[in-house]
DNA sequence: GTCTATAGTGTGATAGAC
DNA sequence: GTCTATCACACTATAGAC
C-alpha cells in the first residue's frame, strides 16, 4: 500500500497493534482462562509496558468484551455454515452438535461468553440496549428452525417456537456447563446426552426425510420414541 | 448443660464459634457472592482479627467447601421432602420445580455449588474419592425416579435411566445458569421453560393416575397451559 | 507513543507478642 | 486464643519524563 497518507498510516498501525494485543489475549484466555489474563502478563507477552495497553483499550473489561464478541462471531459463523442444510430437523441436529463441540473445544472462551457474571462484557450503553446481547443472534438461528418445524406441522401447536429454542439452548448449555465445571456428569458421555436432548426437544428425524404425517420415530440412531 | 467437663466445654465453644463464622459467611455469600467474601471482611463482620479465622478453618477454600456442603444438604432436604409423593411422575415434577426455585431463590449459593470452577471446594483427598462429589447424592434422587418410571414401563426401553436423569438435570441447570448470568433469556419466563423441559424429558402425567397405554397429554393440573 | 515508576487498593496467610 | 503487625504478593490504572 504505497500511496497512503500519513493519517491513514497512523490509523492502520493502530489497528494492527490493537489486533496484535487481541490476538495474544485470545491465546492466553484459551490456555488459562480470562481470570488469569492480567494487564501485566499481557504486556509482557506483547513486549510492551502495561501502560501501552491503555492506549488501545480503556480497561481490562473492554478486552473481555472484544474477545467475547469475537467468540460469538466465530460461533455464529459455524452456525451459518449449517444454514444451507435444507431439512430443518437435520439442521437443528447439526447446530446442536456444533454448539456443544464449540463449548468443549474452547472451554475458556465458552466460559467467557456464557458463564461469566453478566457485567463483565458490558458497556454502559449496552446495558440499555437489549438487542446488544450477542447470544441473541445465535439463538435466533435456532429459533428459526423451530419456526420452520412448526410451519411444517412437525411441532405440536401449543409449543411456542422461541420457547422451544430457548429450552433446547438451555439444555445444551447445561450439558456444556456441567461438563466444564465438574469432572462429574461422569456417568453419561456428552455425545449421548446431546442425542437424548435432541430427542427430547424434537425427535430428530435423522433420516433426512421429512414425513409429517407419521408419528415420529427416528430410528437412525435411536430406534424408538414411545415416550412422546 | 451444667455437668460438662472442661474438655467438653472447650470443644463445645469451638464448635459454636465455627458455626458462627459459617453463619456470617453464609449471609455474606448470599448477599454478595463468594467472590466478595474475603477473610478481612469476614473477620470484621464477626468482630475478630483475621488471624482468628485460621484457628477454625485452614483456608478460605475450606470455608467455601463447608458452605457448599451446607447448600447441598439443604437442597437434598427439600428433595427428600418430595420423596413421599407416590406417583413418580408427580414426584419428578415437584423435584424439578424445587431445584429451579432453589437456584433462583439463592443465586449466589447456587453459583458456589454448581457454577464455580471445580477446584474451589475440593480437598486433595476429595479429588481422589469420586463419591465425594456432593451433587451426586441429589442427582441420584432424580435418577431413582427414572428407574421407577422405567420399571413401570413409562420409559422407552432404550433410554438409560441415569442418562435421562442427567439430561433433565443438565436442562434444569441450563435454565438456572442462563437466568443467573444474563438478563437474557428474556423471551420466555422460567416457569414456562421448566414446564417445557419436563414435557420434553418426560411428559409429566400430572393427573396422578398412571395410564401407560394412552398417548400422553397432560394438561390436567396445569391450567396455565397456553404457552405449551 | 512509549517508557519507568508508582499510587492506591486489594488479597491470603503467618510470626510472634501478650 | 487472640491480637497486632506484616510478609509477599497481585491487581488496575495513571502521572510524568523522554
Kindly describe this structure.
The first copy, chain A, has ten helices and no strands. With 228 residues, the first copy, chain A, is mostly helical. Chain A has two domains: 1-57, Orthogonal Bundle (Arc Repressor Mutant, subunit A), CATH 1.10.10; 67-221, Tetracycline Repressor, domain 2, CATH 1.10.357. The model of chain A is unreliable at 204-228 (pLDDT under 50). The interface between A and B is large, with 47 and 51 residues. Chain A binds a DNA duplex (18 and 18 nucleotides) through residues 38-40, 48-52, 54-55, 59-60.
Brief summary:
Two copies of one chain form a homodimer. Chain A has 228 residues and is mainly alpha-helical.
SSE topology:
2 copies of one chain form a homodimer.
Chain A: H1 6-32, H2 39-46, H3 50-53, H4 60-81, H5 88-105, H6 107-115, H7 124-128, H8 135-151, H9 161-181, H10 190-201
Helix pairs in contact in A: 4-6, 4-8, 5-6, 5-8, 5-9, 8-9, 9-10
Chain A binds a DNA duplex (18 and 18 nucleotides) through residues 38-40, 48-52, 54-55, 59-60.
Report the largest inter-chain contact.
A-B, 47 and 51 residues
Oligomer: homodimer
Q: Give the SSE order of chain A as H and E letters.
A: HHHHHHHHHH
> Which runs of chain A of at least 5 residues are low in confidence (pLDDT < 50)?
204-228
Name the beta content range of chain A.
Answer: under 5%
Amino acid at each position: 500500500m504505497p500511496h497512503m497518507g500519513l493519517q491513514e498510516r497512523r490509523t492502520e498501525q493502530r489497528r494492527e497493534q490493537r489486533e496484535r494485543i487481541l490476538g495474544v489475549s485470545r491465546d492466553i484466555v484459551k490456555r488459562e482462562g480470562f481470570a488469569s489474563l492480567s494487564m501485566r502478563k499481557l504486556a509482557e507477552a506483547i513486549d510492551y509496558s502495561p501502560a501501552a495497553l491503555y492506549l488501545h483499550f480503556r480497561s481490562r473489561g473492554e478486552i473481555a468484551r472484544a474477545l467475547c464478541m469475537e467468540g460469538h462471531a466465530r460461533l455464529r459463523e459455524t452456525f451459518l455454515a449449517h444454514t444451507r442444510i435444507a431439512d430443518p430437523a437435520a439442521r437443528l441436529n447439526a447446530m446442536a452438535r456444533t454448539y456443544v463441540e464449540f463449548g468443549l473445544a474452547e472451554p475458556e472462551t465458552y466460559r467467557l461468553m456464557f458463564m461469566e457474571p453478566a457485567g463483565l462484557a458490558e458497556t454502559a450503553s449496552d446495558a440499555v440496549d437489549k438487542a446488544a446481547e450477542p447470544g441473541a443472534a445465535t439463538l435466533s438461528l435456532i429459533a428459526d428452525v423451530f419456526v420452520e418445524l412448526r410451519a411444517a406441522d412437525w411441532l405440536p401447536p401449543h409449543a411456542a417456537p422461541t420457547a422451544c429454542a430457548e429450552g433446547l439452548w438451555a439444555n445444551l448449555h447445561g450439558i456444556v456447563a456441567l461438563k466444564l465445571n465438574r469432572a462429574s456428569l461422569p456417568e453419561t458421555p456428552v455425545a449421548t446426552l446431546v442425542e437424548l436432548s435432541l430427542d427430547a426437544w424434537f425427535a430428530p428425524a435423522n433420516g433426512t426425510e421429512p414425513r409429517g404425517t407419521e408419528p415420529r420415530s427416528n430410528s437412525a440412531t435411536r430406534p424408538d420414541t414411545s415416550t412422546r
